[in-house]
Amino acid sequence: MVDAVIFDLDGVLVDSEPVWERVRRRYVDARGGRWQADTQHRLMGMSTGEWSRYLHDELGVPEPPERIAADVIGEMADEYARQLPLIDTAAEVVRRLARRWPLGLASSSPRRLIEVALEATALTDVFRATLSTEEVARGKPAPDAYLAVAERMGVPAGRCVAVEDSTNGVRAAAAAGMRVVAVPRRSYPLTPDAEQLAAVILTDITELTEETVPPARSPRIVEISRGRMVVDGIGEGKDFKLYPGGGRPWDWTETGTRHDPGIQPADVTELLGNGATRVVLAEGFDGQLRVDPATVRFLEERGVEVHVARTDRAVELYNSLAVREAVGALIHSTC
User: Is 17-82 in CATH node 1.10.150?
Assistant: First the structure.
C-alpha cells in the first residue's frame, strides 16, 4: 500500500538540468576553471553547499563557495525569469496524482528556485511538504532529503514512492527505503546500478498514472542470525511476516502452524492482502520448517510466484526482490 508520493523537481517537473549545466559551465569557464566531461552528472543531486564547494575545490573556481552559490543561483533566477523550462503536462500529472495520494517534494534546488517554479505552475498548495537539500545535512545520493520529507508528512519512508530522473536521485530514494519511479532525461541517462534500483522506468512523465505507481517497497531485512532478525522500520524479533509497505512479528500460534506439515495457507493470506505478488517462504537455517504443499497450490492458483529456501538464502532472495517487486515473506530465524 502506498501512503504518499514524493517528487523530485529538476528534470521531473522542470527541464532545468540543461539550464543548470549551461549556467554553471559558463561560470566555471569565465573564471578559469576546468569543466570536465562528467561534471554535470557528478553535480546532479548535490545540495547547494556541495556543488559550490565542488566548483571551488575540484574545478578550480577561485571564488569562495558561498560567493559561487550566490552568483550561480542569481543567474539561474534570471534564466527562470526569462523563461521557466516547464516539462509539458507535468503539472497535470501532479494534480491528478494529488487526488489519490498526499504529495511531497524533495529537490536539490535552493529554496528560492523551488518557490519560483511552484508559483509559476500553481502547484505550491498541492504539495503537503517541500524541501531543499540545503535544509538537510547531505544532498543526493544520500537519503536525507527523502527521509526528511516523509517525516514531515508523517508517513513511513517505506510506504512512499519517489519520482526521480537522475542517477543520484534514484540512489537517494532507494537508500531511503522507497520504491522509485524513474523518468530519465535522454541527455542524462541512468547508470546501470540506478536502473536496477528503479522499480519502474518510464520514458515520459505523461506515463505516470495511478496504475503505473508501484506498490510500496517491502521492508529490508538489515540483520539476520540464528534466533534474531532486524527489519528496517519495524525492529528486532525472531520471526516476521513481511509485505509491501510493512510487516509484523510472525506468531505461529495464530494459525496453529507447526514444523510439520509446516506453513499453511492461512499463514500467507495476509501477504496477499497487502499486495504481494511474489512470496518467499523460509524453512529455517536447518530446513526443519516445512511448507505444506497446499500452501504452494494456494499461491500458484492465485498467480503468485513462490520461492521456498533455507533462511539464509531466503533472506538474500527477499532483499533482492524487494527493490523492484511487490514481494512478501515469512522468515523463520531458527531451526
Answer: yes
